[in-house]
Amino acid sequence: MEKIKVQDSVGAILIHDMTQIIPGVIKGPRFRKGHIIREEDIPVLLSMGKEHIYVWDQKPGLIHENEAAERLANAVSGSGLILDEPKEGKITLTAAHDGLLYSSEDGILALNTLEGVILSTLHNHYPVKKGDKVAGTRVVPLMIDEKIIIEAEETAKTFKTPILEVRPLKPFRVGITITGSEVFHGRIQDKFGPVLRSKVENWGSMVIEQTYASDDVSLIQASIRDQLAKGAEMLLVSGGMSVDPDDVTPTAIKELGAELITYGAPVLPGAMFLLAYMGEIPIMGLPGCVMYAKTTAFDLIAPRLLAGERLTRHDIVKLGSGGLCLDCPVCTYPHCSFGK
């Protein structure tokens, strides 16, 4: 800390907030900690009764918190992010568009283990809207050794993908098959189709066809083949997913020649979820809970497929931690613990 005359302070860095009081007009911080004094600030400081001020005694090799935070933010940022201006040594990162936040837990941990470095983010695979705050960077001291920031920048480069990015959901052509003899024969009204159509459209995709099939393997398979022939890029098959003998949806999908990734997911609701692939085209078998529960395994998995991921069984198994929905009276997802 150094005491200098106000007239000699241009370029110096304040180490504390400075309050300005004008009766009936203002009482509050006029200059914030970390402010770099400019020529035009001198008359203001003198009018505040400041003949001398205390500033940081900058030493070679140290950089200001604003520069450090900005360099950290640039080091961790991939596509789909907007960085705001530094304020009090902090940079806020916001989503440039709707999508899913991809955040590397290993990368975040690696950076935060560096002395004085802070990176705080939302959870991995968090659904965001344009303008949402997704992360913040800053450093603890007002001035930090540049070697630490260089190490942070080099650490970020060791990861194959950016530590933070927002991936947009791609618009898919989606085919829907509603199974169940009771719906197929018109004994009850279809409640599944409107729910699935609403979710698909909310994610920015379109339903190219919705068909009905009784609890018959050949009919379900015929519907899937027809939708594939019409250019479907994602297939949703609803109902018939339990272990009852007449629930044949999993059998129909498996015997179609699809690559089965998982039949079952450690998510409640959604335990009987199925994921398979016909080449590059994902097929999801959806249990009945998707029809009546606000958020299920389907809501955790489908957006990741729309973001371009090809999921493995390991990806599904990892959903067990945070995979319990608390059935809140009013669903606040994603602002809750589900899927985290």
TrEMBL record:
GO cellular component: cytosol
InterPro entries the UniProt entry points to: MoaB/Mog-like_dom_sf (IPR036425), MoaB/Mog_dom (IPR001453), MoeA-like (IPR038987)
GO molecular function, one term: metal ion binding
Domain spans labelled MoaB/Mog: 175-307
Pathway recorded for this protein: Cofactor biosynthesis; molybdopterin biosynthesis
Cofactor(s) it depends on: Mg(2+)
GO biological process terms on file: Mo-molybdopterin cofactor biosynthetic process
EC number: 2.10.1.1
Enzyme class: transferase
SMART domains: MoCF_biosynth
Database matches in Gene3D superfamilies: MoaB/Mog-like domain (3.40.980.10)
Reaction equation(s) it catalyzes: adenylyl-molybdopterin + molybdate = Mo-molybdopterin + AMP + H(+)
Keywords, in A-Z order: Magnesium, Metal-binding, Molybdenum, Molybdenum cofactor biosynthesis, Transferase
Function: Catalyzes the insertion of molybdate into adenylated molybdopterin with the concomitant release of AMP.
Family: Belongs to the MoeA family.
Protein name (record): Molybdopterin molybdenumtransferase
Organism: Desulfosporosinus youngiae DSM 17734
